[in-house]
Amino acid sequence: MQLPSFFLSSFHYSYLLIFTITYLLGQMCAARGWFCSSPFWLCGFGLLTSFVGLLGGRRAVIVTIYVLAMFVLANLSLQRTLYPHFPPHHLRQLFLPQQVIVEGVLFREPEHFLHRGRLYLETLRIWQDGEERPATGKVLLTVRSLVDRWHYGDILRIPLALREPRNFHNPSSFDYEGYLARQEIYLSAFLWDDTVIEHVGFTGNYVRRQLEQFRRTVGAFFDAHLDDQTAAVLRALIIGDEGLIRKDLREAFSRAGVAHILSISGLHISLVAAAAYSFWWWLLSRSRLLLLALPMPKLASFLALPLVLFYAGLAGGSIATWRSVIMVFAYLFASLIDRQGEIYRSLAFAALLISFLWPGAVLDISFQLSFLSVFSIFLGTEIFFPWWKKFSECHSLHLFPKRERIFRWGATYVVVSVCALLGTAPLTAVHFNQVALAGVLANFLIVPLLGSAAVILGLLAVGFIFLNSTLATVLLFCADIVTQVGIWLVEWFASLPYVTLHSVTPTLLELSLLYGFLFSLVVHSIFSKQSSLVRFLPYVLLGLLLADCTFWIWSRCFHQDLRVTFLDVGQGDAAVVELPGSQVMVIDGGGFASEDFDTGEAIIAPFLWSRKISQVDILVMSHPQLDHYGGLVYLAEHFFPRELWSNGEQAQSGRFSHFKTVLTKRGVTFRTLCRETSELQLSSIHVQVLHPPCQRTELDTNNASLVLRLTHGRIDFLFTGDIEATGENLLLATGSPLSSKILKVPHHGSRTSSTVAFVNAVDPQVAIASLGYRNRFHFPAREVILRYKKQGSSLFRTDQVGAVTVISNGDKYKTYSYLPLL
Length: 822
Fold this sequence. Notes:
Helices cover 51% and strands 16% of the residues.
């Protein structure tokens, strides 16, 4: 079998792949906090170079030095991006949070979503305490109610409370700070509406202002002639605006395995490039003189570049779009220099250039999926085509050209789809905890509709908006029909059972083993006859994967420890209780008033999946306030709970009604608990319901919170919800045993709770206060902090140390926090 060019280029005459991989690894290490400036790394580099010199000689040392230099350069470039040295006039030099008046220019077109909007502001000057001075720094401003009247290049003057972007500090939480830092944004602010914004003037690049005006005209044209969701999908396909797509429709695209269609990516850029290339080829080939005088493929490739650039600008010019443009440009450039067959070196060059221009791009999901899918497809097809040639000759298919062509096209599509699925499946399991099996078939039907026909018709309609509005409307009507059919197919695929394989989150080791196993299969298919080592490599890696699975099954289902993790969910409560054996309980789920951020989806679920937990047995709602039950809705929908424990109180709100509807639909058993409830037994854990009393008409919502005491051998955990002094006094009056080693601090440490008598009665060794960073309630109160310190308790605050995990073996316990205890 002929070797794929990947092996030839990497093993024989190209160092580009090695340098690219090294550069990407350097940035990935920096993202994990592994900085090569430390003495440990420098010593390691010196030892590695010496070892290589002893084994390989001078040339090997030179190559090693170059490789290490690439690693260091990449590592330092991302380190400077994530932790820059701010100049004196930068807004990060202020003592944050800080209330100032900011004047700045919108360096990006505003983003509009269903329930909020975003403004991207490049600061020019500020007014602080009535004094004006120049300032620099980019600010991400989130506006709850944003009117569509601000545009790229506008100079605005806004009173803002500036603050640092902040992550939720939990295992497997999204690195929001790093995501913004890679865009050179180190400040954020929030406004309820834009009525306080003053328009001062405008500036910016003239060409870009005109292009953004054109994009707005196109978007308004779509909105005026189409229904909301069809317009939203066409906005995404044509001008790169995904903000108005409903959440349920976006999830349907994801379940069907065609979510990539909604973002302007390599698919769309490649389509435009191919169309532009074909157009110029057809037009120029009309002239026999040009055909004889010029190399037509090169000329068509060169002339296609401006159209690709224009489409990238029309699509919003996002970093993800420019990455796709660079990938296409690398391929077109290779064709210009007669290297169009070197696909892998073109990909490596594109990846290296992108990572150099945008440090940290390798951490973006779109970057990873784009390059892995393209790499997998080309690698698979290079192996497939020689095999097909032999298969065709063996079965005499070449005697029937039409039949052979149809079979070849069908087989090629299957190979492309399967290779793309296998190449990206481990990554989608990491980032989305699902693998869309339906994508193999769904892409065959939906990509031609939405990825090709709708895009082409939409672009043609855009081209005629200013030339012939009637023809533009007719073309848009055709695009509307195609788009609606595509949306219907997406929703149909998403509704089918078993179209998506849900998964827990693979670790970095498991991800490496998975890709190593897949790649070893490719190597095995080529070299198995030449090397016995290669022949057994897939089985070795498969054995390691099985050993890893065995380890996780044992630690997940047969452990005897009690593990309780108090998550950082902002101003709210959420605790994951991993009981001895395999049962899991979640006590409260946090929650925000914003409909765009779900703590269950964004915080609790990723933590559960990282712990290999795919089912939660019991949900506990201490009381029906949003900051306690908001995240439980997502868990009820996706983690198959058996029971919901609550105090029986109801909330009069649409979101709580939706919560009850979800629970009923999922067949969850409602269980109302009160003080008179008999002691419960979960595995080896005794659960006592200490509060509220069954008759509690005089108690408000906070003081009626469910209070549970979990006993594991000699170690007790007391969960107190939001009880305040009234509830605490009732608990003390009952004479129930309250003494507990671990206490969830009542009501986030408010001054109306944690009374002296209560703290003395519980006498906790560890007290965990779950609260929001710089919350507007100023929790925890200073006097409460002093009470716990006086009692000798170690006070952990989730706003300072992030998630707090307590592991008990029934006799002793250990406490860990995500960040160091201050």
